[in-house]
Amino acid sequence: MSAQYDVLIMGGGIAGLSLASRLAGHCSVALVEAEQELAYHTSSRSARQLIPSYGPPVVQELTMRTLELLASRDSDLREPVLTPRSFMLVGSEAAVAAEASGHMKPITVEQALELCPALVPDSFQAAGLDTGSFACNAPLLLEDHRRSALAAGADIITGARVHSAQRLGSGWQVGAGTEAFQAGVLVNATGAWADELAVLSGVEKLGFQPYRRTAAIAAVDRPLPESAPMVAAADHTFYFRAEGRDVLISPSESVPSGPEDARPRPGDIERLVERLNTITTLGITAVRSAWTGLRTEAADGIPVAGFDAEAPGFYWLAGQGGYGFQTSSALAELAAGQILAGQGAAASPESRTGQAVAATRWSIRR
Q: Which residues, in sequence order, are CB contacts of 364 under 8 Å at separation 6+?
C-alpha cells in the first residue's frame, strides 16, 4: 500500500523544510529525507549570514522578502532567528566596485579599520558595507520549520533514500527506503542530487553543478569585538566572522564536485590560516573543526523554483547556490502559491520573480 499525499517533498534541507511548513495545513504533505537526520548536508554547513547585497538582482529581491517574512516570524519565537550583523567587503578598488550593489555603500579604509580592527592597514585599498545584513540562527530556523510542519499535519520521514519514481496516472509514485508514496505533485528539493532525482524520475535533468565551499572554526589570540561585521574579500578568496571568542573562516573556494558528502581537502584551511595571520591580527592558533558543503547552481547562477516544462506535477526547488537560507522563505512562499494554484507544466508564472526563477527559462540549461 502506498501512502497518499497531495504534495511529496524530496529533500529535508532548508528548501524542503521551509516549503513543508508553508504548505502544511493547506494540503496533505510528506517530506522525505534520505539521511537519518534533517539538514545533514549543505543546510547544516551554512555561514549563517543573510546578505541583501549578495547575489544577482532576483536573489537580492528574494533575500529582502525572506528577511521580511523571518522578521514577522521572530515575534512568535522565544529567541530571534535574526540578529543584526553588518557585512563588509574589502579588496582592490576595482574588485569592491564590481561586487558592491544598491544595498552596499562604500566606506573609507579608515572606517573599515574602525569597524574591524583586526584588519592590517595596507592589506586592502577599498571597502563596502552592508548594514542591512543579519546573522541567522540556522538551527533554530530549521527546527521552527520542522515543528510548524508537523503541527500543521505534515509527515516527515527520514532515512528513506529514493530508489524509484515514476509518473502514474495523474500523479507520481515514489519508492524511498521501505516506504511507498503517491502524490499529485513531486517536489525536487534534493540540493546537489537534484539532477539525479530527475533522471530517476524519467525527467530531463537541468544540468545543476555542485561546488565545494569549506569553512572552519578557529581559535584566536585576539577575538573580534561582538559588533564586528562579517568580512569578505571582494575577489572571493576568504571570509571570516566572529563565532563567540573564536572565528569562522572560509577560503571561499568554488570547486566543481559531484553530489557527495563533501569533506575538507588537505591544505585548504592551512593555507587560509597562513594568509589570515598575515593580513589580520587575529592570531589564529588552532582549528577546532572544519567542514565542506556543496553549493549547487544552475547554469545562470539563479535558483530554480517552478514546474518542469515537460513532466506534469514535477516541481523543481533547487539550484539555490550560496543563497539557500537567505532566499528560503521567499522561495517557499512562491512555490507554495504555484503548487496550491494547481499550475501544471504548461502554465506560465504570473509574477516577474516567478518568471526569473522558473524551470522553463531559456538560460537554465548548460
A: 206, 207, 298, 299, 300, 302, 304
